[in-house]
Automatic annotation (TrEMBL):
Residues 218-341 form the Acyl-CoA dehydrogenase/oxidase C-terminal domain. Its EC number is 1.-.-.-. This is Acyl-CoA dehydrogenase family protein. SUPFAM superfamilies: Acyl-CoA dehydrogenase C-terminal domain-like, Acyl-CoA dehydrogenase NM domain-like. It comes from Sphaerimonospora cavernae. GO terms for molecular function: oxidoreductase activity. Its cofactor is FAD.
Amino acid sequence: MDFTLDEELDAVRELARKIFTDRATTERVRAVEGAAERVDEDLWAELAKAGLLGIAMPEKAGGAGLGLAALCVLLTEQGRTVAPVPLWPGAVAALAIAEYGTPEQRAAILPGIAEGTARVTLALEEFGPHDPAEPRCTARPDGDGWRLTGVKAVVPSPFAAGHVLVSATAETGPGLFLIERETDGVTWERVETTTHDLAGHLTLDGTAAQAVGTPGSGVLDWTIQRAGVALAAVQLGVAEGALRLAATYLSERRQFGRPLATFQAVQHQLADCYIDIEAMRVCLWQAVTSLEDAAASEVSAVLVAKWWAGEGGLNVVHRVQHVHGGIGVDVDYPVHRYFLWGKQIAGTLGGPSADLARLGAVLSRVSS
């Protein structure tokens, strides 16, 4: 299958690459890591000005209407520079609201997301080994709305967001619920993650919420699949950026009178990185194509892409740090950020072992 980007997606890639390359420099990323909210607000404003924050959203909601494929192009370019902006959770939340939200929810939330004046984040994870598709956070009806009770772990970049899209289980099944970030029954605990993002543990105690879609209708599975693909896209960019750093360093660093890049053992390490990256790319675009075409294999395609992102991506950042030698563990040198991002993405929404277990369950159902 040919996964070559068409003209529109290629234009998105070139625009995104220019903005991230110009704005997300090593010096700028280092400065943002020491800022209060750990988000590059200037870069966020630039992405909004370029129309990239709403790139995947429908045109009637103020977006560009280019769908999941364009979002993955954008996220890959973010990963190449490990740019500290909360793109994937906000974009996936916006897609879920655009697909399943009420007209009132879409009108209230989506235009601000596209313009960069409003943010929504996702609360899909909980503590302990569990499937994100089966949240233990509970939702009970309360008049025209709902009340949520439970704990959500490591909500990404919540403190500049106005709303949070929370997964919870009602009597009719799991679903998604929209809450205000600051309201009665909400408690936040600030936590710094592996990537230096400022995340939050969220405790809900009878918190007022609105359902996005009907609980038990598949809205949560739909969102988790797109979150998995979004994470795979970021990880692909992280791996590409890490390999680029390694190639530059090894071509300039000399030992025994010649560049390190000419040593066969080093070449083999970089060749393995290249193979893993190409496998990640093919599996990512197979998953995107399956989701956009509503193919019967979409669940397994997403799990394969997410597994490659976790396993292959982690292998790449490990190798890249290894071939840098001692400087690879120096936190003043940029390569360590790629390792940290690769490590965190690999464990988000379950690590590679969990993805394999889910894939095995899907395949066994298909074959039975």
